[in-house]
Sequence to fold (247 residues):
Amino acid sequence: MKQIIANFKMNGTVEDTKEYMIEFLSKVDQNKAEITLCLPYTSLAVGRYFLSDSNIKLGAQNLSDEEEGKFTGEINGKMLVSAGVQSVIVGHSERRTKFKENSKIINKKIKIALKNRLNVILCVGESLTEKNTLKTLETIKNQLEEALKGLYENELERVTIAYEPIWAIGSGKSATIKEIEYAVKAIRKVLSDDFSPKAGKETQVLYGGSITNKNVQNIMRAKEINGILVGGACLDAGGFASLINLS
Ligand code: PEP
Fold:
């Protein structure tokens, strides 16, 4: 079954999430895909309550690169697990650019998440300048190798890679099928060369960037992808349920 992951970003109060869950669960076909909702920290408890009887997984959007201690405002892997979280997004381009998260931090976060038995959704993708200067593959390779440094091959079973070109995120301009297939093939080659052909073949690779009800069917059928990561289009409960039902 393909994966559909939703990134709510900084949207939704506890009350909003409650209303969202009631509508979404009444409309979505849960058997269409393996669905994960990555909610804001403050909505995790209400998300856990509503999703407990469903096939839908609870996800978070970030975790600390420290394990415990004097880090005011931070949330660690152990806390996420105790809040019922199964998966966590790491390396999203908004965190790389707006919060200055470098590859060392991303690598630390991945290791902490895996140590806590969380599934990792690792985002990689090039900027518009990198695309225009033909540096897409080089960027993806560097991001992957730095993020996955020191991981054992069996740990990759709990890592999903999301190819998210920065220029496609929230821009209304999704990558073409050709561009997606080109990048996904390159991601699989890096995994195959650095880990094993099995890792290259079996690691889950998703696409994210301006997915809507209009392009979802086409994108889901791109070669060698295992699903999608959705941002803006997940925010309307009814709209997201129909996007999943259409996929
Ligand atoms: C994202 O931010 O991960 C994303 C895919 O956003 P959008 O769907 O809005 O482009």
Notes: The chain has a mean pLDDT of 98. The pocket of phosphoenolpyruvate is lined by residues 7, 164, 169-170, 208-211, 229-233 (CB under 6 Å). The CA atoms of residues 141 and 190 lie 6 Å apart. The first helix runs from residue 14 to 27.
